[in-house]
Amino acid sequence: MSALPQELDQFQSPPDERGNAEIRQFITFACTGQSFGVDIMSMREIRNWSPVTPLPAQKPDVLGVIDIRGRVVPVHDLALRIGCSAERRKQHDGHIILVLNVAGHDMGLLVDSVSDIIDVEAANILPVPQIEGSAARFLAGIARQGSNLVAILDEETVLREAVELPHSGAEHLLDDDSITPSGDTEFVFLDEIQG
């Protein structure tokens, strides 16, 4: 009679429960030497670098816009946008543009390279540690992939927010939100025109 409780204990959970675990797919990529992932459901396409059309008065992370089959898509330098780098790259050949659709908005992210598509069980997505001064708000979690950890982007936060970088030269903002040029560069500001 003691065998019956043992059998029930063994099969208390269905044997194929692990096979039914929620699996999410992410495209992994490199940006400034770090490994990131983005939900495959947000991905529209992956493109090689092509020149962008710059826009006036854009933030430092905005490289410009590209035309993708009649849609104008802004392209952001991901490293600048989330604070992985404080310097804008001048050379983009060999880089990749990930085109995402997030909350109905298209956006391009300039990254170094695309790595792979990975399957991650929900249980293997760890919470992001909240470290003071870090850009943890741009991450939805940390995916455990074998012995590696992949930082999973929170696409909606990346769409809405950008790290405020300390700017130099003409891009340096003072507390009163006026722009101060440096060196011998001359700028005309709207305040001067209207005043």
Structure description:
The protein is mostly beta strands and 195 residues long. The protein folds into two domains: 21-164, CheA-289, Domain 4 (OB fold (Dihydrolipoamide Acetyltransferase, E2P), Beta Barrel), CATH 2.40.50.180; 166-195, no CATH class. It contains four helices and eleven strands; from the N terminus they run H-E-E-E-E-E-H-E-E-E-E-E-E-H-H. The strands form two sheets. It has a six-stranded mixed beta sheet. A five-stranded mixed beta sheet has the order 3-6-7-5-4. The longest helix is centred in the N-terminal third of the chain and has 8 residues, at 3-10. The radius of gyration is 23 Å and the shape is globular. The chain starts with a helix and ends with a helix. Residues 1-18 and 168-195 have low confidence and may be disordered.
